[in-house]
Amino acid sequence: MENYDIREKAREALANLKGKYLLFLIPILVQILRFVIQYTLNDRTASLGTSPEEITAALEASTSTLTVSFFSGQIFNLILNILMAFITLGALWTMLEVIRHRKTEVSFKDSLKTFSEDHFGKVFVTFLLKNLYLLLWSLPAILGLFSFVMGATLIAFDYISQGRISPYSEIAGWMMLGGFVVMLLGLIPLIIKSYSYAITEFILFDQIENGSYTSANACITASKHLMKGYKFQLFLLQFSFIGWWLLVLVTFGLAGFYVIPYFHTAQTVFYNELTKHLQIEF
After folding, report:
1. Percent of the chain beyond pLDDT 70?
2. Is 60 within a domain?
3. Does residue 13 fall inside a structural domain?
4. pLDDT tens digits, residue range 44-73?
5. Direct distance between the N- and C-terminal alpha carbons of the chain, in angstroms, rounded to an integer
6. What global pTM score does this model have?
7. In sequence order, what DSSP letters do the residues of 54-104 get, joined into one string?
8. Domain interval for residue 50
9. How far is CA 124 from CA 26, 67, 120, 131, 203, in A?
């Protein structure tokens, strides 16, 4: 099970698949939309005056607007990310059926299969529990980041208020250094666990299909078990797409029409090959 073979099988699965762009249409369009929004925001920022007086006046005039926009934007992003997770998973499940030669044609409707009555509740609980576990594993990194930001804020405030760096800034400096170290160390278990849970949703699909589903936690546990010894391979597989994602970046998302289906299909092939290699049947 080499990553080169996995990528090749992904390309073969997509080569003559009718409807593949419709299947991944929403993830592709959302990717392009995000580039457009980011470009628009950057353009508006650049249109502001460059003098301190102009910047201050612009900020004072729009503080309340910026606050409302920030929180509404965060809520919108949260809802969008949840919807995207469901839709992308529907596409992944469909590609798993294609790879297993159960489907020879796909459509936009297939990407919405996770919203069906049989799937929605199970998918939602699985997403929720998996992300709760990851949140708990991220706490050390979050605390480290908080310490780093607090230290930097104290140093900046001390300098602005006194016009110099006082002895208290040394303590804040140690807060920054300690926070940075804790944050980096905290990222290690978080990354490891994220790869341990990486195939949870695929296992959920197989268990639902064959009637062996018991709980979301059982799917997560099964993922942890199957990924032992294969986490780094999945990391290398994903890392091998870095050049493709750079292409998406420089084309303002347009290359996503090729890269997004290819990337997600490769993840699907990885899972299918892993279960065959380990001779696992759910």
Report:
1. 85
2. yes
3. yes
4. 555 555 555 555 555 555 555 656 665 666
5. 20
6. 0.85
7. HHHHHHHHTHHHHHHHHHHHHHHHHHHHHHHHHHHHHHHHHHHHHHTTS-S
8. 3-277
9. 19, 30, 6, 11, 14
